[in-house]
Amino acid sequence: MIGPIGLIRRIGPIKEMIMHAEKLKHDFEPKLVAFVCTWCTYAGADLAGTSRMQYPSNVRVLKFPCTGRIDPVFILRAFQKGADGILVSGCHPGDCHYMAGNFHARRRFATFRKLLEFIGVDLERLQFSWVSAAEGGKWVEVVTELTERVRSMGPMHEFKELELEECWSGKLDTAELKEAYEAIP
Amino acid sequence: MSRIGVFICHCGENISRTVDVERVAKAAEKISGVAYACEYKYMCSDPGQNLLKKAVIDQNLDGIVVAACSPRMHEKTFRKAAQSAGLNPYLVEMANIREHCSWVHEDREEATTKATEIVTMLVERVKMNKKLQPITVPVTKRALVIGGGIAGIQAALDIADCGHHVVLVEREPSIGGHMAQLSETFPTLDCSQCIMTPKMVDVANHPNITLHTYSEIENVDGYIGNFQVTIKKKARSVDMDKCTGCGVCMAKCPQKKIPNSFDKDLGMRPAIYVPFPQAVPNTPVIDRENCTYFKSGKCGVCQKVCGPGAVDYTQEDQLVVEDIGAIVVATGFELYSIGEKPKGSAIKGYGEFGHGKIPDVIDGMTFERLASASGPTGGKILRPSDGKEPQQVVFLQCVGSRAREKGISYCSKICCMYTAKHTMLYHHKVHDGQAYVFFMDARTPGKGYDEFWRRSIEDENAVYIRGAVSRLYQKGDKIVVMGSDIALGIQVEIEADMVVLATAVQPRQGADLLAQKLGISYDMYNFYSEAHAKLRPVECATAGVYLAGACQGPKDIPDSVSQASAAAAKVMTLFAKDELEREPIVAKVNDKNCVACFYCKKVCPYGAVEEKEIRDRQGNLIKVVAWVNPGVCGGCGTCQASCPSKSVELDGYTDEQIMAQIEAL
Amino acid sequence: MKNSKMTLSTETMNLDFVKKVEKLSDSSVRRCFQCGKCSAGCPMRTFMEHPPNRIVRLLQLGQYERVLAGRSIWYCASCETCSTRCPNKVDLAAIMDALRKCSWDAQGASKESLVQLANRLFLENIRTYGRQYEMRLAAAFNLHSGKLLKDFMLGPKLFTKGKLKMFHQKNKNLAEIEKIFSRIEELRRKGEAP
Amino acid sequence: MKNILEYSYYPGCSLHASAKEYDESTQGLFKALRIGLKEVPDWLCCGATPAHNVDELLSLSLCAKNLELAKPVEGDLAVACAACFSRLKTAQHKLAGNEEKRRQVEYALDAPLALDKPVKHLLEILAKDFGLERLAEAMKKPLDGLKVACYYGCLLTRPADVPELDCAEAPTIMERVIGATGAEAVSWSHRLECCGANFTLSRPGVVIQLSNEILASARRAGADCIMVACPLCHGNLDIRQKEIEEASGEKYNMPVFYMTQLLALSAGVSPTRLGFDSMMVSPMPLLREKQLI
Ligand SMILES: Cc1cc2nc3c(=O)[nH]c(=O)nc-3n(C[C@H](O)[C@H](O)[C@H](O)COP(=O)(O)OP(=O)(O)OC[C@H]3O[C@@H](n4cnc5c(N)ncnc54)[C@H](O)[C@@H]3O)c2cc1C
Ligand SMILES: Cc1cc2nc3c(=O)[nH]c(=O)nc-3n(C[C@H](O)[C@H](O)[C@H](O)COP(=O)(O)OP(=O)(O)OC[C@H]3O[C@@H](n4cnc5c(N)ncnc54)[C@H](O)[C@@H]3O)c2cc1C
Ligand code: SF4
Ligand code: SF4
Ligand code: SF4
Ligand code: SF4
Ligand code: SF4
Ligand code: SF4
Ligand code: SF4
Ligand code: SF4
């Protein structure tokens, strides 16, 4: 069994795979996963509902107490399980229900984005945003935009294929990641 | 094998209009582990809830998914229902197919597919749910109030009146704080002593209040509901129980020329003293630094003259430990004094105003003492240098405040008002005198406040000049004030007899040290931070600690009192139950895996992570691991996401639960 | 101009000019909250038609014409009182420098910029001799400004006190000095320096 | 005898011309104190106020050039003139904090910048490096009974974080230094007011008005004389004093000394070598009255 970092190494050059995705572009409905915090974005999405705003049905919402709880591994796994695009959204800076959780999340994702880039994931597929409980409209905007963007990028193959060989180890104690965490002050 | 029940709600037509609920129920039935699935018109109605309860019992369910509205709407409802049927409430999850589905999509096909997927994800999640027990923490119903200014006094009285015991700790020999020093108070101009002293006496006489004056907080242990607080009672050298407050000792003490800081050094006091005649308690203390006996072993007069034999030179500092359930911090503020560079202050000092070396340049509190009927001049406005009545007094606002280059960028909030008050008091006392005020803006946003300020100009003769002052210098017995009037764009020079500076309100010196003992946070200036500026303005982020008065930011008396009562109400809410019950969404550390890197401790916004020693039976230290104090943990999960060895887990949001949801994508 | 009504719009507010001044002076004008402390202590206020705080105010509103039209900037003595005491660290003395430069660059010498004339001659002196040659400076100034008799009375007296030298010993490194001047000119020509 | 301290020395233009008595007395004093001064060869004008008024870049370049010239000379750079001191310190300060300006100046000089040499005003050398106690010991002839108004003017301490000589608003360094001679430093109000500085050529009217107030304030405080550390201040208060008296109708007759003149006098340097005869307002009657010569 190898951890996610090992997995990353083995993927190697995957840029070519993205190329032939073009063909599928039009009749393709992407799968989107949204990792959101309870206090702000989940409530914002609720507000979009109570206001009967309309948006594409591609998104599936996962609720977290705080963006601070969102482990990068979840994102990797979601990509593996067929997500074509991922949204991470929480409270605006300074508004965090837990004061600083979203701040830590931001730091962590800054490092994580580098990792993703390194393994060849197009960062356009991963969006971070702030949606407050009052921003039903913004939720709709963000989800719609991401859906359209990912739709035009086509499906994400690179991780799905790996699913066959890999099993998530649940351990994250490699030297590389440790180093990444050291970077978090 | 799990036995999950799935209940799909129509919400009248709110859901069923776009989602084919029957199809969802059919699909749900097929998910492995689902033992029962049905749909119903209104799940939250009584019959709906009964349907759920019955199914729990009849079908022997060990997990439930209600596919209906947002959990923010009815999660509690269904958890309660399940609980009444004997199921652990944390085995119930809601699939939000209304706000997140039927209301936001029009296409019936798409919406039905999405609803099915949402249900599937939550079924997978609920399989991983664990039974959780609400966490209960016992509550010691005794409150500690730190600081005996008006804020601390108000909070202590409110809590004590509610029947709970209060320990009030005050650093000075008497309670009263700044308000006891004031003359008359805006916006009504009632006499501060007259409204303050009755409250001070109430504190002293209240059966539910233990008063520790001349005392400080030494150490704080524990957490909400369960603090152990060590209080240091400094040696008073007078036995509180024996002293009758007769005052003979003070009258006879030969050391009479010690500047009295309560009077801003304008008056003198003996070495054995009470700060002011209305002090509570009315028991003197010996100022050991200035007492002849303590300096040279001679004198001893006070002991000889004291009838009850209360004077005790051998007294020592004493430590008292109190069990406390909640803490109200009310340590108030300090005025910036314009001398050179004040120690520990961000302020750089005002050389252009003479660094406080011109004797008739005073601060606002000194003016209060001059104007106070019980002050060193008996309420006459006389200037410190030669005791003459000043005919021209210039007031400068915003000294230190709103001057980022001097170190402070905030507005001190009270000085516009007290300066207006000072011009009035001056006019009342020196009828033919003239008051001038240099100001930038008049910040008077309180009830009756702006009217008050206008009155000082329109009825009380004050001349307000919009503009700042560049320099003050002594010229003969006058102080030349070099200012400008920015409306006219010309320089203004006034030869004043006295200048009063509205200096900045700052936190107490050492406020940061107390905060560190309490584990509460403070801002860059050392003002204590509230948990949320708008919605939790009297609570600290640290559970069980509350704020009142000017220690949180500049405040006048009405604000301080309101906040004190609010803090008291919060304490009483906490004390209303014997045990503190809270959602069991807290983090737990797995001792085996923890590698003691303490990233979790670093990132925890609540300071909930502690270091725990693990010992074998012989008491040998095996290792140190992280430990999350469930009373303190806020349940954000940041620690879990940060832990490199996956040793800490947030109940209700475990990796398993989340991964299960993702697997079901 | 002085008393005419000010119409504000994005067209009439020249914020580019303000940005240039901010850059030249390394100081923000937006930080100023118009307390007037600078004007209260300015020794030259009585000679100016706009007090220093109003100069900053006009800049905040992008009214550079009003700023440059007056004599105020030419009467600033660079004493730094304003910059030292400003509660917001608005470096007014540096802003005044920047405005003088802008004005001179745009309009050359004006009646009000006699000081600037003196300054220019002073710098000419450095370029030619490396050091100040006070006698020549005074003579040149009087010649240029048309104030021939100015300080005429002081001259001989200073002379007898040994304070004005007739002849100047030139620096040995004049070539290097000339190089500094010309390389700065070159930078400006290339648009690489303000 | 070996020197106790060694400095490189930047006299500035004025000290070779209108302020030659400042130079003479400085040399005399430092010799008496056994402090070495080595003049920087081929130094050039710092640009003074005019340079930064017209052209900041030129001002910075001239100062940077001087620092470059001073680099090979041993010892921290001693500066007598307050204006030069202010310019050199400002250049160090601004160039340290601004990459762009640094690049431009480097281009102008066609050489890497050498900014590190500490720049010190004579006052700083006397009060801090040499030390007030040692200074007091070196004073052979006490100036008892002489009431001195120490005049800082505007350039010596401003702006607050640049010269780092003393508190910008309430400095005491001059008072402390002259205190070593036993003279009495009076407390007066216009220590830090501007004298009109470089308007001396272009707008003498301004100078006359401002300097008049300074002289009046010194007289109000009971001063016998004014002490300065800057040739510009000296020019305005001494050279123009006659004009000021004519314009204001006041009679001041207030000698204006360079601080080194008084210190050297007290240190026992012969009065004939201190340039007293170069002063427009003759100090002789005062010095005789106080029995100092
Ligand atoms: C010149 C002036 C005039 C004013 N006039 C008015 C007015 O007219 N009207 C009005 O509404 N407001 C006025 N105010 C404001 C008023 O004084 C404050 O709002 C009020 O005093 C704040 O009360 P407090 O209890 O928060 O703080 P404080 O009065 O400062 O009391 C804090 C108490 O805590 C004690 N303490 C501090 N640290 C510790 C510690 N570590 N341990 C134990 N005890 C500690 C202190 O000794 C003190 O007794 C004026 C203020 C000033 C400066
Ligand atoms: C334009 C604007 C912007 C603002 N922006 C901010 C901001 O950014 N930050 C901030 O802190 N504050 C802001 N405020 C202020 C803020 O709105 C108020 O402080 C706050 O709403 C006051 O709350 P309240 O509950 O006291 O009063 P309200 O919000 O007025 O609530 C009173 C309630 O009582 C009900 N009611 C009235 N009479 C009766 C009756 N007789 N019987 C039964 N019910 C009754 C009303 O219907 C209402 O629901 C803003 C205010 C305005 C006008
Ligand atoms: S449970 Fe929610 S969705 Fe169902 S009827 Fe009630 S409100 Fe509507
Ligand atoms: S200590 Fe003794 S003398 Fe002093 S007040 Fe108390 S009882 Fe009276
Ligand atoms: S022993 Fe001290 S306190 Fe008592 S009378 Fe003497 S000096 Fe005063
Ligand atoms: S309250 Fe008034 S005087 Fe005080 S800092 Fe604010 S604006 Fe200035
Ligand atoms: S982060 Fe994990 S391993 Fe590190 S101390 Fe905390 S629980 Fe232990
Ligand atoms: S869940 Fe949040 S509050 Fe609780 S211990 Fe972890 S980081 Fe701290
Ligand atoms: S002192 Fe500073 S803030 Fe005040 S008016 Fe002048 S520039 Fe503006
Ligand atoms: S630097 Fe200029 S504007 Fe500033 S105080 Fe001095 S003379 Fe006035």
Describe the secondary structure blueprint for this structure.
The complex is a heterotetramer of chains A (185), B (665), C (194) and D (293).
Chain B: E1 4-9, H1 21-30, E2 34-40, H2 46-58, E3 63-68, H3 71-84, E4 92-96, H4 98-102, H5 108-128, E5 135-138, E6 142-146, H6 150-161, E7 165-169, E8 184-185, E9 190-191, H7 192-205, E10 209-212, E11 215-223, E12 226-233, H8 248-252, E13 258-259, E14 268-269, E15 272-273, E16 285-286, H9 292-296, H10 301-305, E17 318-324, E18 326-329, E19 333-335, E20 361-363, H11 364-371, E21 392-399, H12 415-429, E22 434-439, H13 449-458, E23 463-466, E24 469-475, E25 478-485, E26 490-496, E27 498-503, E28 505-507, H14 511-518, E29 545-547, H15 557-575, E30 579-582, E31 587-589, H16 599-603, E32 609-615, E33 621-628, H17 638-642, E34 648-650, H18 655-663
Parallel strand pairs in B: 1-2, 1-3, 3-4, 6-7, 6-18, 7-10, 18-29, 20-27, 21-22, 21-27, 22-23
Antiparallel strand pairs in B: 5-30, 8-9, 11-12, 12-17, 13-14, 15-16, 19-28, 24-25, 25-26, 31-34, 32-33
Helix pairs in contact in B: 1-5, 2-3, 5-18, 6-7, 6-15, 11-12, 12-13
Chain C: H1 15-25, H2 37-41, H3 52-60, H4 64-69, H5 72-75, H6 81-85, H7 92-107, H8 114-129, H9 134-145, H10 154-160, H11 174-189
Helix pairs in contact in C: 1-7, 8-9, 8-11
Chain D: E1 5-10, H1 20-33, E2 35-39, H2 48-54, H3 56-70, E3 77-79, H4 82-97, H5 99-109, E4 119-121, H6 122-138, E5 147-150, H7 173-179, E6 184-185, H8 199-202, H9 204-220, E7 225-228, H10 231-239, H11 241-248, E8 256-258, H12 259-267, H13 284-289
Parallel strand pairs in D: 1-2, 1-3, 3-4, 5-6, 5-7, 7-8
Helix pairs in contact in D: 1-12, 2-3, 3-4, 3-5, 6-7, 9-11
The complex binds flavin-adenine dinucleotide (2 copies) and iron/sulfur cluster (SF4) (8 copies).
One iron/sulfur cluster binds at residues 9, 11, 42-44, 68-69, 73-74, 98 of chain B.
Measured by DSSP, the beta-strand proportion of chain A falls in: 5-15%
- Biggest beta sheet attributes of chain D: 4 strands, parallel
**How many DSSP helices of chain A?**
8
The largest beta-sheet of chain D arranges its strands as 2-1-3-4
The largest inter-chain interface, given as chain pair and residues per side, is: C-D, 65 and 57 residues
Order of helices and strands of chain A: HHEHEHEHEHHH
Calculate the mean pLDDT score of chain D and round it.
91
Q: How many separate domains of chain D?
A: 2
Text of the CATH class of the largest domain in chain D: Alpha Beta
Give a short synopsis of this structure:
The complex is a heterotetramer of chains A (185), B (665), C (194) and D (293). Chain B is an alpha/beta fold and 665 residues long. In chain B, 28% of the residues lie in helices and 25% in strands.
